[in-house]
Amino acid sequence: MSAVRKDYAIRQGLDFIRSWRIEDADLTGWDFRFSVYDVNASDIVKTVGDGITFNPIIAPEWSLVIDTTSLPPGSYRYTHDYNHPDGGWTEVSTGEFRITDPKVLA
User: Fold this and answer.
1) CATH code of the domain covering residue 36
2) How many structural domains is the chain composed of?
3) Quick one: which H or E segment has residue 81?
4) Which of 12, 23, 26, 71 is the most buried (most CB within 10 A)?
5) What digits encode the pLDDT tens for the residues 36-58?
6) What is the distance between the alpha carbons of residues 86 and 59, in angstroms, rounded to a whole number?
């Protein structure tokens, strides 16, 4: 079993909208995906980690971060998913946030 730390975050400039941490788990062979969607259009506007398989030998500690600084004002939804080697994609968490000004969080 490989002990790891895995961090996820949605960031607006230097401010974090939402963050997670998974520690001390054997994630060998798992795929991770972290996406931000436009709530009104249901389109993915940013994704990181899609199809990346975790390898503890190459990267025992790594992060997936989405920076929303370039997104226009509006409502957004995030999802954090994983794909265990034995099964399909599973949604870990989801939520919404709003950007009222590209530099200010609501």
Assistant:
1) 2.60.40
2) 1
3) strand 74-83
4) 12
5) 788 877 677 766 655 454 554 55
6) 22
